[in-house]
Design brief:
18 helices, single chain, alpha/beta
Length: 460
């Protein structure tokens, strides 16, 4: 197996070197060569997609792929392909599948963890603020999590918080200690400066996803005056140094029209973002603001707009809830990812602040086999309509059952929240989304993006 992986790594390296010389010319030639050699018959459908992209320069994904070589430092791009394509997929996928069968539990593709609960901002309705601001996981604990994860086949690690850039030095140190892993962070971006960007260039395996709520008015509304200007400065630094980065956008009842507009998608591309991760506002914690929750019509609007722009814009987008149909439902609980907060509590999801395991008392594998995580595994999918994937936002009674049956406790150290109180805040929203989601599911792509050509994004 090790010999096979070495051969795959060598082949990938040679292919990347060949493509890098002239991607516009060599990428299509490489695909034609693979066709000629008769390789890749097991992924014939994928080859058709690549041909559709590479053979048509006007295709937005053709522009996106070529833009990667034009806009990103070549050595960073090679590292990204090695860690994502080879380690996380070619090597990681079969390793995780073997361990799923061996241990009878979910084994995630990625781990989201909080180095600290401290933050230099205090955003309105922040789901993370309820942890307090004095919690930290030591470097040794973070390093142990990554080492345990690699044993299970996990090579992708994301940081959240708090503000993870408060721990800049340890983040870079972990990148150095694990060059075979890809690291990313959800960050407010205000602490990214020239010196840190130079460190990113040096280690090559770290990518920030910068939180931005729209343009200046919307961003500063939630994050404080002057934040938007600091974010734009950080993105300009990264773009100038040919460093990859993306955006993280939380759409609320207040900013959804801006977040879903063509103007905003074009702006993200202009900033230099290569991806955007979309989230909808969740009323987690005693200080939550339920009025910021998107309505059913607004969520359907985002569903429609994101799919529409995937056909026209050179930007890779992920919609955490509305992409459940591609992921086969909820991805939490270790099915695709899990969350470890700054206190070491292992939670099924960043928005589910309940746990029955702590990394200081249990191994990562033992947590995945705990009652709460096994309840997730046994309950997934939580709805036959994958446009209603979430056990909180879409099926709140499912979360109540899992938390109470497993004996999990609230991890909110300041104001512990009873799971029934949390579920109650989502029940009305879930009820109103259900018929809209069912109509979208029933039309299932018959209207070119489920709404793009209809009078209403809910396909009435």
């Amino acid at each position: 197996m090790k010999t096979k992986h070495k051969m795959q790594a060598f082949a990938l390296k040679q292919a990347m070197n060949y493509i890098s010389g002239n991607p516009h010319k060599n990428l299509p030639k490489l695909l034609a060569w693979i066709d000629y050699m008769g390789w890749g018959e097991d992924f014939a459908a994928h080859k058709e997609v690549f041909h559709e992209i590479l053979d048509k320069p006007e295709n937005n994904w053709h522009q996106y792929i070529m833009g990667l070589w034009e806009d990103i430092d070549n050595d960073i791009l090679k590292t990204l392909f090695r860690n994502f394509v080879l380690n996380a997929s070619i090597i990681g996928n079969p390793k995780r599948e073997i361990n799923r069968e061996k241990y009878g539990s979910n084994i995630p593709w990625a781990i989201l963890m909080d180095p600290t609960s401290a933050c230099n901002l205090h955003c309105t309705g922040c789901w993370a603020a309820e942890y307090g601001n004095k919690l930290n996981m030591s470097y040794e604990t973070l390093d142990t999590i990554i080492s345990q994860g690699k044993e299970l086949g996990i090579y992708f690690y994301l940081y959240s918080g708090g503000e993870p850039m408060v721990r800049k030095a340890d983040i870079i140190r972990l990148c150095e200690a694990h060059p075979d892993c890809q690291f990313a962070a959800f960050t407010n971006g205000t602490l990214i400066d020239e010196a840190f960007a130079d460190e990113m260039l040096r280690v090559k395996n770290f990518i920030p996803a910068i939180s931005v709520e729209g343009m200046e008015e919307d961003t500063d509304f939630r994050r404080g005056g002057g934040t938007f200007n600091k974010v734009e400065k950080a993105m300009a630094i990264l773009k100038a140094k040919r460093l990859p980065f993306g955006t993280s956008c939380c759409y609320t009842s207040k900013n959804v029209e801006m977040i879903g507009s063509e103007e905003y998608f074009d702006q993200m591309i202009q900033w230099g973002a290569k991806f955007c991760w979309f989230f909808t506002y969740m009323p987690v914690g005693k200080e939550a603001v339920p009025e910021l929750m998107a309505t059913a019509e607004q969520r359907a609007f985002m569903y429609s707009q994101i799919r529409r722009f995937r056909e026209t814009k050179p930007l890779f987008t992920m919609d955490f809830w509305n992409d459940g149909e591609y992921a086969g439902g909820c991805i939490a609980g270790g099915r695709r990812y899990l969350h470890i907060n700054a206190n070491g509590d292992m939670e099924p999801c960043a928005f589910i602040h309940y746990s029955d395991s702590n990394i200081r008392d249990k191994t990562l594998l033992e947590a995945l086999q705990s009652p709460l995580f096994m309840a997730y595994k046994n309950g997934q999918p939580f709805n036959g309509n994958h446009l209603r994937p979430c056990p909180l936002l879409d099926n709140p009674d499912a979360l109540v059952r899992m938390v109470e049956l497993s004996g999990a406790h609230s991890t909110d150290l300041q104001n512990p929240e009873d799971v029934r109180d949390l579920a109650a805040k989502c029940r009305d929203t879930a009820g109103k989304w259900a018929p809209v989601a069912d109509r979208l599911h029933a039309c299932s792509g018959r209207c070119s993006g489920c709404g793009a050509e209809a009078e209403s994004p809910v396909c009435t």
